[in-house]
Amino acid sequence: MRRFLLQSFLYSLIFLFFVSCKTYKLTGVKSISNSETTVENLYFSSNEDYVYKCQMDIYNNHVSGILIIKKIDRTTHRVVITSDFGNKLIDFEISDNDFKLNYVLPDLDKKLVINFLKNDFQRLLKREYPVTESFEDDNSKIYLSKIEDQSYYLFYNKDNSLLKKVIYTKNNKEKIDFTFDAKKHIFADSIDLQHKDFNINIKLFQITDTE
Questions:
Q1: Using CA atoms, how far apart are residues 7 and 29, in angstroms rounded to an integer?
Q2: What are phi and psi of 72, to 5 degrees?
């Protein structure tokens, strides 16, 4: 069963190269003066472990496990994914510019799989964003951060200033949406990661809280 899921996953990743994404454009917003030069995603900034139930839907195949994230320093995190029974699947350290693979289950030791996890978690765990432009709508302050051919749109709730969404684009094409449900700045109770160019969705649900 596990080998079948892996094969389906690999075929799905290959398929993405033949799929184009639509151009992303903000709608219903107005431009505002840049009050911030840098904004942050603080959801993984605590020194305590972040532990989530992890559910992945990969082209109608469902995979579940436990995700543990530990901050090593300001820019680097260690990420461990285990099965529901506690068997380690993958263990790596990651920052904006570096990736170190500590362990991977042989069945998962494929370049496409490793790159998929590396790219998604570099986006999820990215902390600092230089602000290029600022916008707002009725509910959110929105900051655009452009880094070479990549752009990040960060949506902060006006009522509580919590980050509620990050939209990642490349070459103006929408690639990944990250949606956060949170009660405080340093910990998201749930996270929904939705790819736009192929049918992969990752959902994380809080197991242990952090102060």
A1: 42
A2: -90, -45
Residue listed under structure tokens 């972040």: 50
Q: Is the pLDDT of residue 147 over 50?
A: yes
CA-to-CA distance for 146 and 24, rounded, in angstroms? Answer: 14
Written as one letter, the residue type at 146 is K
Q: Residue 84, Cα to own-chain centre: how many angstroms?
A: 21
* Distance from C-alpha of 40 to C-alpha of 129, rounded to nearest angstrom: 6
- Sign of dihedral through CA atoms 179, 185, 190, 193? positive
- Predicted confidence at residue 12, as pLDDT, reads 54
Distances (CA, A) of 58 to 7, 142, 191, 202, 205: 11, 30, 17, 9, 18
Give pTM, 2 decimals. Answer: 0.86
